[in-house]
C-alpha cells in the first residue's frame, strides 16, 4: 500500500492519523549543481531517500510521505542560472504552515527530512519557534546526518570532497537517476578553506560559520570531488542511508511526547 | 529533449534563457477531493497538463517546465484530514519569490498555470503586485480557462457539476492515473447555490463572491457530479486542454513586452 | 433616516446591528482617469452608487453605509501624477481589519462593494482569507458585476470601450457630478489587445491575466471610448445599477449563514 | 478653483506639483463619540478644518487637499459599537504608502493634519521612519496643536473638559454640522486622572503615558464636558483654528528643505 | 538586596512578581553624541538614572530593573559613524515582546523608562497597541519628563540648549562617568529652528513635528549648548531626576488597574 | 585604550573603522538558569568572554566591542519566571539591523559571538540571509565552539553534564561573578536523552534536532551537572576560551573577503 499521503483520500488519511503515522516531509532545494548535475538534484535525492526509507519503515510502522518541498533557501547559488530560492522568512514560514496543517489534522510525529545544507539552520530555527509559538513538535535532520560515520568510511575524497555537487551527491545521483549525470563534466573541484576555523565539507563541523557565494569559490558551481563517484558506490551509500533513515522513522514512531524522560 | 528545468544543468538553463524559453510554473494544491480521489489531485492534474502541454509546445518553441508548487491556498478544505494549506500572504510570497528568481536569471515569459480554483484570485493579485513592485511580468491562467467552451460542450452534468472532485477532475484523473480513483465512492454530489447571485461551477461566473467551507456544503468534500466520468471522456478532455495550453505557450513565446500594441 | 453609519452614535449603531443590518463598505481608488476625469472618479462613482443603493434598500431592510475606502490598489496608474496606491498586502490588510472591526461588533452581512477593477482579485483573495483566518464572512462584488447584461445592451462602444475612464465611467460621472467632466478632452481611446487570450474590457472575461501599466497602452491614461457618453445615458445606467445593487442588499439580508443550503 | 486633488485630472495635478503645492492629508478616525455625537466625528471635523484652511491658504499659495483617511488607530474605543480601527502597523503603513505615492509624484510639502488624539504618536513615529527609510519628508500636527493658547482662553471647562466628545469637539460639531449633535444626550462627563503624573485633557501634557480603554472610564464613551458647547462658540473656535492652520500652510510653502538653517 | 532582575534566579523573580514588583525597563539608544561624548551616552544615562531610582524606590516598594535595551530608533544619526539603529517596526516589536514576556510572568506594573527623544513616539505608539492587542499595560516616560520644571530652573542655556549632546546630557555624563566626556571638544552648538512652529529643545513642545537628519543641522552632531555643563551641576540635576523617577515608581506601585477611577 | 565602541565618539569610531577594526557583537539571552544562577547568566558570561578576548586581541589588531544584545531566543525557558524571549523573526531582524548599521558605517569584520545555545541556528540563518539580501558579511560562533576539545579535557561530567546551568556555565560564573552563584542550590541535574539520535550536551552533536521545553525535563530548570564546578576550574576554562576567541579575532582581522581562496 502506498506511503504517499498525496495518493490517499482524506478518509484514508484519517485512518493513518488515527494509527499514529509518522509524517515524513522531505525538504529539498532547486539550485545549480555544476555542469554535471541538474538543478533538481537536492529535490531528487531527498525524494528518493525519503520514499525508500518511508517504504521500508512502513513494513513495521505506519508512515505517510508528503510531497517534497522543492523551494529551498539557496541565495548562495543565485549567481548560477536556473536556481530558485526563497528568502529566509518565506522559507521558514512555508515550513511552519505545512507543519501546522499536519499537526492540526492530528499528525504527532513529523519528520522534516532535509536534503540541502543551506536549509538546515533555518529548519532548526523554525522547528524551535513552532514548538512554542504553535505547539507543533517536529524532528529535523538532513539525510546524511544519519550516516556520518558510514560516509566517512565510504568516502575516498579528502576533506572538502563532500560538500556540493560532490562525491556523495554525484554517486547517489548516478544510482537513482544516472541519465541525469553528465560524466564528461565531472572533475575534482575539491575546496576547503585555508582557515582552520571553517569547514568546507558537509560531514565535518567548523568552529565558525560564514557564508560564501558559490560563485566566489568555484566557476562551475562545484565544491567537492565527484571524480570517484560510481553508480555502485552510490547504490551502496544510498542503501546505508535509507536503512538509517528508516530505522529512525521506526524509532520515532515509538516516542511519547508526554514522556520526555523516555525519549 | 527534456522540458523540465530541474533536469537541466545551470549551463543548459542558461541556453534556454538565451533562447527566450517560456517558463511554465504549475501551481497546484494539496487538499481533500472526496472519498474517491486523492489529496494530491490538483497537483497531479496540473502537473500532467503542464508537462504534456510543455512537451507539445516545445516542438515549436523553447519551453522549460518548473516543478509544480504543491502548497496552495486551501483554507476551505482544512476541515478534511490531510489538506495542507498556506496562508494567503505566504502563498502569494512564495509565488512572488519563485517568479523573481526566474526573472533575475533572464526568463521573460513566465506562465503561472494554475490547477486549483482557490488559488486564482491570489495568483492574479500577486501577479499585479510583481509587475510593479518587482518589475516581473507573468501570465496567469487556470488550465480550464483555456477550454471553457470545450468543457461546456463536453459536460453531461448540470450547472454545479464541475466544481470540486467533480465531473471534470474525476474524468481527467481516470485518464492520467486511474488507479487513484476509487469508483465505488463516486456519486453525484452536485451543488449549486439557490441564490442567483452566486455560482457553484468552475466554468460559470457569479456576480458575487463569498467563501464557503466545503464542510458546510458537503459531508464528503465533493461539489460536483463525477458520476458520468469515464477514462475515455477524461482522455478526450485532457487532449483538448493540452492542445489549448500548448497553443497558448507558443503564442506567448511570440509576445514582445516592449510592444504592448502588438500583444 | 440616514444610512450612513458615520452619522450614527454608537448606541444607534448598536440598534442597527441588533436589527441585522447589512453593512455596505464601498471600496474605491484614487487614480488618474485621463485628461477628462478627476483622480477621485472611482471613489466618487462607487460612493454614489453605494449611497443610492443603500438608501433604496433601506426602505425594506436595515442597512448601514460605511465611508468609502479611497486608498485602493492602483500600481498600474502610478506613472500618472496624483495617483495614490497602496501595496497589495497593505490594501488587503486594511480591508481585513475594517471587516474584522465590523464583525467584532456583530455585523454579519458585510458587502464589499468595489469600484475599481484592479481591486477585485485582491478583495476576493482577502475575503477568502478572512473567512477562515478570522471567521469573518463577507460578500464581494464590483458594482458593474450586478449589471453586465444591462451594460451590454446599453453600450454603444465596441469591445474595449468599457475599461478605464471609459464609456461607462464617463457617462456615470456626467450624471453624478457633471461639472468634473472636461468634455473638451473626451476622445475615443478604445484599446483591446490583439491576443485573443486577453481582454481589455471590464465586462468581457479573458482566458489569461497579465498586467499592463496604463502608460504602456495610452499616453493619456484612457482605455475605452467615452465619446458617446451623455448625462442622460449616465443617468439611465446609474439607475439600473443602483436598482441591481439595492436588490442584492435586500436579498443578502435574508441569508442565514448557518443554512448554506438555503443560500 | 478647487483645492481638492481628487477633483483634478492627472494633468492638473502635474501643474500643482510643478507649482510646489502643499499637499494636505487629513487623518481622521471612525470611533464612538458618546451618545450625542456620531461615529464619524473625527473624520468630519478634520475634514472641515482641512478644507477651510486649504481654501483660505490657497488664496496665497498653491495647495491640494487629499481625501481624509478615515481609518485611524482607535483600539481604545472598540468596546463601543461601530468603531473601526486599524492595528498600529497597518495604520502606520497606510500613512507611509500614501505619502510615498505623493512624494513619488513630486509633492515636497506634505502636511499630515490629524484629527484624533490616538493617531498622534503613530503619525510622529512613521513620519520619522519615512524621512530616513523612504527619503520622504512630512510635517505632522493635530489641528488643535495650532491653537492651544486660543483654546485655553476659549474654554469654560476645567482640566479634563477637552478630551473626547468634549467641549471642543461638540462645539465644533455644532458649527459644522449641528444636525448630527443630539443635544438631549449632552452632559458633563469630565474626567481627569487622580494621579498628577497623567493627563486627561488634549491640551494639557502629562509626564507619563498610559492607555485606558474608554469603557474603563466612561459608560457612555465621553471624556470631557460638552455641556457648555454652543454653535456660536464652535464657530468662533473653528475660525481661529482654520486661520492658524491656513497660516501654517502658507508658512510651510516657503520652506526649502535643502536649507534647514532657514526653517 | 539587588534590584536587578538579571541577578535574580527564576525563583527569586517569582517572589518579586508575587510581591507586585514594579518592573523598570530602561530604553536607550546607541548613537553619536558629538565629538565630546560617547556613542553609548543615552544607554549610559538612562541606565544610571534607572538604577539609582530603582534602588531608591526599593526602600519602600518592590522593584526589579531589567537590563537596558540599547538598540533604539536613531535613523537621524546614521550619518555619523558608529550609530546603530533599528527600523521603526523592529524597535516597536522588540519593546512589545519584552513587555509581553514580563506580563506573561505576572508583572503588572511595567515602566518603560526612556532615555532617547527619538524613541518616545514609537514607545507611546506600541504601548497603546500592546494595551489592546496583547492586554499588556505599561507606563511610558522619558526620564526628563519627570523633571521639566526643575530642568527649566536649572538650565543656563537659551531654548535649543537642551536637545542632543547638550547642556543636560553633558552635565549628567560628567557626573556619572566624567572620564568619557572630552572637554576639549565641548562648544556651544545651540540650535533652534527659525520657524515658530517647531521646537529644538527637549523640554519645549512645538506645534508641528518634522524630522531632521542631525547632519543637516550640525557638522559635529550636537544640537544644544554643553558649554556650561559641570560635574556639580550634573550631580545636582541627576539627584533631582532620580528623586522624581523614584517617586513615580513608588506611586505606580500603588495603582490598581481594575480601579481606573482611583488612578 | 578602550575596546568598547560605546565609549568612543563617532570620530573615534571613524578611526577604528578606517583601521579595519573587527567589530565583536556579543549575543546573549535573558533566561532562567536554575535555582543557583541568575537570569542574566548568558548575557554575563558572553559579555565577560567578549570583553576579555577583545582586550587581549586589541594588543595586536584593532577591535571594537558592541554592547551585548541581551534579548535572545529562549521560548523553551518561558515556563520559568523572569525569562524574556523574542520571537524568532524579531530576534533575527534585530541581529540583521544591528549588523546592517555596522556594515553601513564601514565595518567589514563583524563577529557575532554567541552565548546561548538556542540562538545558534537563528544566528546562522540570518547570517546567510544578510550575506545575500543585504550584502553584509558576518562570522558566527558560540564562545564554546572555539574550545570544544579543551572543554572535553576539562570536564568531569558525563555526557549531558554541559548543557544549561551546567558544569561549564556554573564554573565560569563562579569565576566571573561568584557572588551570583547560590552554592546551596547546586546539584547534579545531568540529563541526556535515551534516544541515541539526540544530544543533551552543548559539546556533543546529535543526528536529529527536536525542541524540549526545559520544564519538560527539569523541575528546576537545569540540564547538566554543576556539582563539580569551582572558581578555579572556572578561571582555567575562562582563560582558555578567552585565548581561543582572541586568537580568532586576530585571525579574522587578516581575512580579505575579496580573496576567498585565501580565507
Task: Itemize the secondary structure elements and their pairings.
The structure is a homohexamer of 263-residue chains.
Chain A: H1 10-18, E1 22-27, H2 41-57, E2 63-65, H3 88-105, E3 109-114, H4 120-134, E4 138-142, H5 148-154, H6 167-177, H7 214-217, H8 231-253
Parallel strand pairs in A: 1-2, 1-3, 3-4
Helix pairs in contact in A: 2-6, 2-8, 3-4, 6-8
If you had to describe this structure to a student in words, what would you say it looks like?
6 copies of one chain form a homohexamer. With 263 residues, chain A is an alpha/beta fold. Chain A has 8 helices and 4 strands. A 4-stranded parallel sheet of chain A has the order 2-1-3-4, sandwiched between helices. The longest helix of chain A has 23 residues. In chain A, 65% of the residues are buried. Chains in contact: A-B, A-F, B-C, C-D, D-E, E-F.
**Spatial ordering of strands, largest sheet of chain A:** 2-1-3-4
The N- and C-terminal alpha carbons of chain A lie at a distance of 29 Å
Low-confidence stretches of chain A: none
Q: Which radius of gyration of chain A do the C-alpha atoms yield?
A: 18 Å
What percentage of amino acids of chain A are in beta strands?
5-15%
Order of helices and strands of chain A: HEHEHEHEHHHH
The largest sheet of chain A, given as strand count, sense and whether it forms a barrel, is: 4 strands, parallel
Structural class of chain A: alpha/beta
The largest interface is: A-B, 51 and 51 residues
Number of H/I helices of chain A? 8
Large-scale geometry of chain A: globular
Total count of strands of chain A: 4
What is the mean predicted local confidence, pLDDT of chain A? 97
Quaternary state reads homohexamer
> What portion of residues of chain A is helical?
25-40%
